[in-house]
């Protein structure tokens, strides 16, 4: 395998129209860049059109729900600092501003880990487009108090039993970080994660209330997105405690066959990943010493196959096992 082979495989996939909306891909194996590609196309900053873009190594790009995975790393850093509660601790104990919600014994049973693993058992629906207020994440952003909105949702399952995709869970995790550190989420991320990794440019979108959008608001360059993947591949890189990664990246709850969820990260049999709407990806395969970052523009489209084609048919099929 060599980088030209992978570049040729990707060029063929582009020519055949199998990777529509691909904006960028950067992959590193055994410490060496094996593929780096930048394209062009229509892009958005959340729901704000940016027009036709020519993407470069320096272009900031929405990473959408990969933001959640970054928040999961930040929680581990804050925990090592003694700033946030242990995962087993009751969640509502750390939201004393909602005493009425804590009176419900079903909500009182919620733990921090239930938020980290998206097993809160609360009613939540993100199956509709993120342009609609019927989407629970959008409704959370429109609510006068996003945290009460999340914690006040109807209880539909026993906590800890069933994974249910929930951007509100990530918002709660991020709020615990802000409460414990006394810093805005973006400021804590800059000081404790981004600057140690050499990441100097990023944006973190906020809601109308000024609160960072912990579920989807981060924008990074492709190379800096890859830096997050390399940190995970390197066991924390001296930035995130290895003990946290060992816990966060193990399967905690089953999503499907061979597909699980950890602490804000997806976990497969041989890989871990962050997924974002439109085809955003961090993919880490330790046995292959491989980290991949992908950005794409298939926002709200059904299937969104581009990232999977790049990973499975271009990179994984093209490297030595």
From TrEMBL:
Which Pfam families does the record match to this protein? Beta-lactamase
Protein known as: CubicO group peptidase, beta-lactamase class C family
Q: Any idea where the Beta-lactamase-related domain is? A: 13-296
Task: Write down the superkingdom of origin.
Answer: Bacteria
Q: Which InterPro entries does the UniProt record give?
A: Beta-lactam-related, Beta-lactam/transpept-like, Diverse_Enzym_Activities
Q: Which SUPFAM superfamilies match?
A: beta-lactamase/transpeptidase-like
What is the organism of origin for this protein? Streptosporangium subroseum
